[in-house]
Design brief:
It comes from candidate division WOR-1 bacterium RIFCSPHIGHO2_01_FULL_53_15. This is HepT-like domain-containing protein. The chain is mainly α. The protein has one domain: Four Helix Bundle (Hemerythrin (Met), subunit A) (Up-down Bundle), CATH 1.20.120. Helix content is about 75%, strand content about 0%. It has five helices and no strands. The chain has helices at about 5-30, 40-65, 75-85, 100-115, 125-150. The longest helix has 30 residues, at about 40-65. The model has no long low-confidence stretch (mean pLDDT about 95).
């Protein structure tokens, strides 16, 4: 049994959950047929919120199991994402590319917004933009997480 087998299992489980969220959002958006009232905006916002939250669970597990702990302070969510884009001492390579980290900062920003405003204040255009990006972004995330778990499986 490898040192990081539990972490690999956790990452794979979350990857499956993220795939399900991406699929749910695709199905939901295609069922709308162009209409978007406030309830549809809220549903799409909730799925995007859940997506980044699930991704952050992976980052937290990596930080705890490999890096030795989570960042601290008010901006720890931003720092955690940033940390995933750089190699961590001699413990691990970068989990994500810098470009992907930059793209994900938009999803983190949206998640923060979603938690701090009323649903009726959500902007349809922003949701449409993030929803359109999600399948491609997830493809990159999934590929890069697979590379990272391959790295972990060597220990």
């Amino acid at each position: 049994m490898g040192k990081f087998d539990g972490l690999i299992i956790d990452i794979d489980l979350e990857r499956k959950n993220l795939f399900r969220l991406v699929d749910e959002l695709k199905q939901f958006v295609s069922s709308l047929g162009g209409r978007t009232d406030s309830m549809e905006v809220r549903v799409a916002g909730g799925i995007l919120h859940d997506f980044y939250t699930g991704l952050e669970k992976i980052f937290e597990r990596i930080a705890l199991a490999v890096d030795g702990g989570l960042p601290e302070g008010e901006g720890w969510h931003i720092q955690l994402l940033r940390r995933m884009t750089i190699p961590f001492a001699e413990r691990r390579p970068a989990v994500l590319t810098a470009d992907l980290g930059e793209t994900l900062s938009e999803f983190l920003s949206f998640r923060h917004l979603f938690r701090n405003i009323y649903g009726f204040e959500l902007k349809k255009e922003r949701l449409q933009n993030l929803s359109a990006k999600l399948p491609s972004v997830f493809g990159d995330i999934d590929s890069q997480l697979k590379q990272f778990t391959n790295f972990l499986s060597k220990f």
